[in-house]
Structure formats: C-alpha cells, structure tokens
Amino acid sequence: MNSTPAATPTTTPATTPGPAPAAAPAAGLLAGKVALVTGAGRGIGAAAARLFAREGARVLLAARTEEQLAAVTAEIRSAGGTADHVRCDLAEPDGVRAAVDRAAELYGRLDVAFNNGAAFTPPRPLDEVTEADFDHLYAVNLKGVWLAMSAQVAVMRATAGQGAIVNNSSVGSLGANPRLPAYGAMKRAVNSLTESAAVTYGPEGIRVNAVAPGNTRTRMIRTWEESDPGLSDRLAARNPLRRAAEPAEIAEAALWLLSDRASYVTGTVLRVDGGARA
To answer: Which helix (H) or strand (E) holds 253?
Structure first.
C-alpha cells in the first residue's frame, strides 16, 4: 500500500486589505459639469444637448417649443443621460433669466452654457428688410444672447466660481452678407460681445468663445432654399470639403470650447465652415 503522505496544499499568503479604491471619474469632456443649451429643441442645439449629456454633463435644454424639448429630453434620458428642459423665448427677458436660474435650482450650479438659439427671417437685400423683422432679429439674436450671457455669468460666479460660455455666431458675420444683412449684423455684434466678455470675465476664470458655422443641415438652410433652389449645392461647392456640415459637427466644436481641453482658449470666434472662408 502506498504510504506517501498527501501533498500539502499551497496557499497564497493573506494580504491586509487596504482602503477601497476611489471610484474612477466619469468619462467625458464635460463630466461632472452642468450645462445649459438654448435653442435645444432641434438642429444644432438638440445635437449639442445629446452630445453634452453623452460627455457626462447634466443638461438643461431651453427653447420655445415644449414638444420638441420634451422629445429630446426623453431621448437623452433613455440613453442614460441626465437632462431636463424649460420653455424659454429669447425675446422675453424674464424668461431668459428664469431659464438660467432654473439650471442652478435643478442641479445646484452652472458650469457651461451654449447660447445657440436664434431667429431667422427671409433673405432679402437691406432696403427690403422690414422693421418688424429687424427688430425681431435684434431681440432674439443679439439682445437675447446678451441677456443670457449676463445671467449665466452671475450664476456661474455664484455657484461654480468659474465657467465657460460659447455663443453660436455664423460665418455670415465675418464679411458682407447681402442676402441676410440684418442677420449678419446681429451675429457680428455677437462676436463683439463674445470678445468683450472674454476680456471682462477672464480674470474670474470664465472663458467666452463663439463658433461660426458655415453651411449646415438645419431648418434655417432648408427654409432659405425654399426661396433659392439649389442653395445647398452651391454652398457646398464653395468649400474644400464639398459638403454641408451635420449639426453634430458644430456641436463637437462647441463641446471642445466648453471643455477643460480648451482651458487656454478665450475670446475666439472659431470658424466651422469646411474651409469656406480659408
């Protein structure tokens, strides 16, 4: 009978358990930040809201149309993001301020804002622009942006202590714009507000930039094309990439400017135009 003793099992020496590892930070360029997006019901604004949520932000969507806002908010939530919405007409000062304050009420702070909302009126030469259209473009595209920025700076200062703002301008603001003279003028004024705010609030750690989209597949271009058939094709032929941008591509530029990756960028108007103005 084999009397060889049974082998002694080997064991790994016990180790003293250390503290539990810290949870890995959430992934995303806006992880842990609270973002406000105006004009978020469709187009570039909706694309930005979706993207910012995917990049870790808690997002408040603002626009005039409740149904569109609710749909985009539900889409973000179903994808696992955090979002809410508030109705806001940029031509109504009290509503603009209330929308900005709502971000702090919901999430306790405001870190970044994308002032994307804008109005559009039919393309026509300067002497055919109606006074009503001019006043509407001023109220929404310029005064609305000024109101939003003023409120955003105040809330960022009081909560996060720093922040970043991106305004949506247009390549149509960078030179003559004979078909959209009033629209181009308001957007050029937004560029000036952007630069002035960057100088004013930079010492507080609040960066302010703008994106200037070129031809983009939005309702504005579709509406313009109704009175100018073939517009999209002509615009695409004028840029080296030979195509229009998707709204998400403009949102990506805004995302970078709002993120800490752009921590040394302020006071710039970034062209996102496929090289059309190169």
So the answer is: helix 247-258
- Of 138, 183, 201, 264, catalytic: 183
Which neighbouring-strand residues pair with 271? 212
What's the rounded Cα separation, in Å, for the pair 201 and 218? 32
Residue 268: C-alpha distances to residues 45, 197, 265 (Å): 20, 11, 7
Q: Is 183 annotated as catalytic?
A: yes
Sheet hosting strand 82-87, strand order edge to edge: 82-87, 58-63, 34-38, 112-115, 163-168, 206-213, 269-272
> Could you give the C-alpha distances from 22 to 57, 73, 278, in angstroms and in order?
21, 31, 47
CA angle 216, 222, 226 (to 5 degrees): 145
Which one-letter DSSP state was computed for residue 239? S
* pLDDT tens-digit readout, 234-270: 888 889 999 999 999 999 999 999 999 999 999 999 9
Q: Which domains does the chain have, with CATH numbers?
A: 34-272 (3.40.50.720)
